[in-house]
Amino acid sequence: MKIIFAGPSLPDAASLAGEAVRVLPPATQGDVLAQVEQGANVIGLIDGGFEYAAPVWHKEILHALSLGVTVLGAASMGALRAAECHPFGMIGIGRIFEDYRTGRLVDDAAVALMHAPSALGSKPLTIPLVNVGATLDAMADSGLLAAGLRERLEDAANTIFFKRRTWRAIVEQCAGIAEPDRPQLLATLLSNSIDQKRIDALELLKAVQDARDIRSNADLPWKLHSTAFRTRSAL
Predict the structure, then answer these.
(1) Where is the TfuA-like core domain (predicted)?
(2) In the prediction, which pLDDT does 229 show?
(3) Distance of alpha carbon 67 from alpha carbon 59, whole angstroms
């Protein structure tokens, strides 16, 4: 059985996954363990809850890995957990994972955004910092940003709470831009916006689709010690 946990990073995951992959809402604590107990052999973690529910616990991921389950992470909560658990065999995918793994990103909030409820399709309503960075990098490489403007835009984005961060809010917050120039800058940002979370999530989905639906019997160089927290009831 193959599972992915997806929400605002890939709101159309169910229509893209195909019959071989089951799509579940963003994971919270205990969800990975529950899927392992129900027979999942491949688990792709994209989105996870964090504000109103306990997030996916590292030890449930380690438990899955210790049983030979393939666990992959990307884009959002999956990138964070993959950066933390890749020494134990979790597979990280995409730019956001690499940025966390190498220390270019350190703040969990860089992937946070506000989104519509799952009943309304989990559509993103604000811009996460990882998408801001990817967009500004690409625009700078293409010569679309004047000297110093990239830094001012990034500084503005960092000062805005994730539930209020939009391209319009970033432009309004950005210092040193004449009022008549703001509409054109906003239009340029919108037309060149890069959804890095979606890019990475699509890469993970492809990897899950391509993975073998079996548990590995390979010996691990580490051992998961039994504790009171190994059971779902303790989670």
Answers:
(1) 47-166
(2) 56
(3) 12
Question: What pLDDT, on the 0 to 100 scale, is given for residue 198?
Answer: 97
Minimal CA–CA distance to 124: which of 3, 4, 5, 12? 12
- The whole model's pTM is what? 0.91
pLDDT band at 235 (very low <50, low <70, confident <90, very high): very low
Q: Whose structure tokens read 């990897």? A: 207
Q: What region does 39 belong to: left with phi over 0, alpha with psi -120 to 50, or beta?
A: left
- Mean pLDDT, range 1-16, rounded to an integer: 95
Q: Crossing angle for the helix pair 129-141 and 196-210, nearest 10 degrees?
A: 100
Q: Judge whether 131 and 194 are in contact, CB under 8 Å.
A: yes
Distance CA 27, CA 230 (A): 18
Q: What are the structural domains, with CATH classification, of the chain?
A: 2-106+199-219 (3.40.50)
Residue 108: CA count within 13 A, CB half-sphere: 12
Cα separation, 8 vs 113, in Å, equals 8
Contact in structure between 4 and 24 (CB atoms under 8 Å): yes
